[in-house]
Amino acid sequence: MSKLQNSKNDSEARMYFVNYWADFVRTHTDQEWGVQHTKFINSLMHNAKFYPFTAAKYLEMKQEKCSRL
Predict the structure, then answer these.
(1) Which residues touch 16 (CB under 8 Å, ≥6 apart)?
(2) Cα-based angle 39, 40, 42 (whole degrees, multiple of 5)
(3) Among candidates 3, 26, 25, which has minimal Cα distance to 14?
(4) Domain range annotation of the chain
């Protein structure tokens, strides 16, 4: 994953990350990549608990509207 840190821009970094995980999923068993996926999702959920804004506040800051709010 060191290439991700050396990328020239965000778009390149995102595409590298997508390709990296697509290759990882293709070349590893469900049990192997499932463990990694679970850790990733759990970390997102954990961090979301401590994010200081509601979804509505975040969209307001970005000056965007959401029909669900």
Answers:
(1) 3, 4, 7
(2) 65
(3) 3
(4) 2-61
Name the residue type at position 61.
Answer: M
The CA-to-CA distance between both ends of the chain, in Å, stands at: 37
Q: List the one residue out of 50, 49, 20, 47 whose CA is nearest residue 36.
A: 20
Is the separation of the CB atoms in 33 and 25 below 8 Å?
yes
**pLDDT value for 8:** 65
| 68 or 25, higher pLDDT | 25
Fill in the amino acid letter for 24. F
Cα–chain center distance at 45:
11
As a whole number of angstroms, the distance between CA 40 and CA 42 comes to: 5
